[in-house]
Design a protein that fits this description.
alpha+beta
Length: about 350
């Protein structure tokens, strides 16, 4: 087993510490949730799997690790999942938001950078996996059954029965979504996941909000694994009724900006810092470095749109990095600003970039 690879000090891992609305800042809440998750599954006998770098390319089908399942794929292929299973907390980036930053009225639900919390185990343990996870929700996160919905297809009888055996029959919501909602693509030929989404009551939305999945993974027709998956940020956002999942991060300095633009600017800052901390630097190639380059150029665009000075942006970057990535290189914010200012000095290139963006919006 390995120690949690978090870049922040561990908070007290008790449900009262996590769920006390004022006791912890957002960064410590995130650390506390992650440690609660890992601690719970270690206590059940799971091995804690070492996370990988976001840009590791351990999964050659993607540029960045977008879920812990990328790390687990080799165990699915080799059929070498240990008897109890693995748990892990994996840093991830999904850059779909980047494609929509410049659409004027577009908003997004999820942050590009996040922690993916996941378990993988043998298919014979499906009933136990469901029972364990519901225990985690109820005893560690203090979420009562009446605040949980299990959205399942009646065709996935094994999943339905596993939830019933776990005593969660009153939480089951059958066939309320299109069939595609209950399936997962894994990026591997002949591998597919049949899942149910678990939703939790969001007091801000005054409705149930999907938080994660329990997935029965099949190769062709053979059951080969069970996965538990959820994002740490979306779990915290839902539990605390936050305005946006980005509010799970300690970001200050953009509070007075228009809401839609603010969230895009914050997301670009968070993802840029995360990728720099991962070791990437902007370049024209390979693709992952070029994507980072676009993120930094986006910071330039948002800086212009919000009339924020270079100095103020550097301060925002520095303070965010200090709080969320305290082990990062102290010059990281200066590096980002250097690339951004060099880009802005190339007037024809930067104006061409801004013009292209304006044509999209």
């Amino acid at each position: 087993m390995v120690e949690p690879s978090l870049q922040v000090p561990m908070a007290v891992s008790t449900k009262s510490g996590l769920l006390n609305g004022t006791a912890l800042d957002q960064r410590k809440r995130m650390a506390s949730l992650i440690e609660l998750f890992l601690e719970f599954y270690r206590s059940k006998g799971y091995f804690e799997h070492e996370p990988v770098k976001i840009s590791s390319r351990i999964d050659s089908t993607i540029h960045f690790i977008g879920s812990h399942i990328s790390v687990y794929k080799k165990y699915l292929i080799s059929r070498k999942i240990p008897n109890v299973g693995y748990c892990m907390a994996q840093k991830c980036v999904r850059n779909q938001n980047l494609n929509n930053y410049f659409k004027a009225n577009h908003t997004f639900k999820y942050s590009s950078y996040f922690y993916s919390l996941g378990v993988i185990t043998l298919p014979t343990r499906l009933d136990l996996v469901c029972s364990e996870f519901f225990e985690f929700l109820k005893t560690k996160l203090d979420i009562s059954p009446e605040n949980i919905k299990l959205r399942i297809s009646s065709e996935d009888e094994k999943l339905v029965q596993a939830c019933i055996k776990a005593g969660m029959q009153s939480c089951i919501e059958l066939d309320t979504r299109p069939k595609i909602y209950y399936t997962h693509k894994l990026g591997m030929i002949d591998y597919i996941g049949h899942s149910f989404n678990f939703a939790i009551w969001d007091k801000k939305l005054e409705d149930f909000s999907d938080v994660g999945n329990i997935i029965l993974i099949k190769h062709k027709t053979e059951d080969i694994a069970v996965e538990v998956a959820f994002g740490a940020g979306i779990m915290l956002k839902t539990i605390f009724g936050l305005g946006h999942v980005i509010d799970c991060f300690e970001m200050q300095g953009l509070e007075n900006q228009e809401a839609v633009l603010r969230r895009k600017f914050e997301d670009a800052i968070i993802t840029t810092v995360a990728l720099y901390d991962d070791g990437l630097r902007p370049k024209n190639s390979p693709t992952k470095n070029r994507i980072l380059s676009t993120y930094v150029k986006s910071l330039s665009y948002f800086r212009k749109k919000t009339n924020i000075s270079i100095t103020d942006l550097e301060n925002i970057l520095r303070e965010f990095t200090k709080k969320e990535f305290p082990c990062a290189n102290k010059n990281l914010s200066k590096e980002i600003i250097y690339y951004l200012t060099e880009f802005e000095k190339k007037t024809s290139l930067s104006l061409e970039f801004y013009k292209k963006i304006e044509s999209i919006s």
